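A reminder from the course coordinator: this example appears on the midterm review sheet, so study it carefully.

Given structure:
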């Protein structure tokens, strides 16, 4: 796969709250989301080096190892082999049991080979570190229907999040919009559930957590996808 993926951006799942690292502040979450939006925009426009820099800015706000992987992938696609190597290695150090470890080790070997001049020709310049990989323009709309199908297949689970809250709040309807990003490999990032017309943070949290557990389709065009889905829950009468 030559697209930026899995880690997140893999568990990337980019969970903005890491239990082991402590919950980020509201300000840190907002800063991370702003940089992540910029990273995705750059990546989908084939601007890989700026995308990598924005992923690292997210990492500074909310330190998730997946972001190091995303940055490494973007640097590689942008032809910045030394920076790609640095971030691949940092990712493996931070996440030694990562599911994409075999792919990362392969990338490291490839990049080390490309950045090492042949010993038999000592005066030869270092060969090119890589070329920008062009992808179709757009924001990943090629898989929106498939993502919606995943949500619909699990609607009962999302409904259960509301029903649990509704038992203590009889007669109250609720609208919730779930928004998240998927990286090219289908890993979810930045899930956010926003209530409208009622206040139930536990419902939003439950919906976000369920969304993180689902399996989403890969992007045929190698793009990131921003997806929103509205839920209109009706209280049991």
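Designed residues:
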């Amino acid at each position: 796969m030559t697209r930026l993926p899995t880690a997140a951006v893999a568990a990337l799942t980019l969970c903005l709250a890491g239990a082991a690292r402590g919950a980020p502040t509201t300000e840190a979450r907002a800063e991370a989301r702003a940089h992540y939006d910029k990273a995705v925009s750059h990546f989908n426009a084939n601007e890989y080096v700026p995308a990598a820099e924005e992923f690292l800015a997210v990492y500074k706000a909310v330190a998730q190892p997946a972001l190091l992987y995303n940055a490494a992938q973007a640097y590689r696609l942008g032809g910045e082999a030394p920076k790609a190597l640095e971030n691949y290695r940092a990712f493996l150090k931070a996440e030694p049991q990562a599911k994409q470890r075999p792919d990362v080790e392969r990338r490291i070997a490839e990049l080390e080979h490309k950045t090492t001049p042949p010993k038999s020709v000592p005066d030869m310049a270092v060969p090119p570190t890589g070329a920008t990989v062009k992808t179709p323009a757009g924001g990943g709309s090629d898989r929106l229907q498939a993502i919606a199908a995943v949500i619909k297949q699990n609607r009962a689970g999302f409904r259960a999040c509301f029903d649990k809250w509704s038992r203590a709040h009889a007669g109250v309807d609720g609208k919730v919009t779930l928004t998240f990003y998927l990286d090219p490999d289908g890993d979810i990032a930045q899930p956010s559930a926003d209530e409208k017309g009622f206040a139930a943070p536990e419902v939003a949290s439950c919906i976000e957590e369920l969304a993180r557990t689902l399996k989403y389709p890969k992007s045929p065009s190698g793009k990131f996808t921003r997806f929103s889905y509205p839920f209109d829950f009706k209280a049991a009468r």
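The helical segments are 26-44, 48-61, 65-77, 81-94, 101-114, 144-153, 155-166, 201-213. Strands lie at 174-182, 188-196, 225-233.
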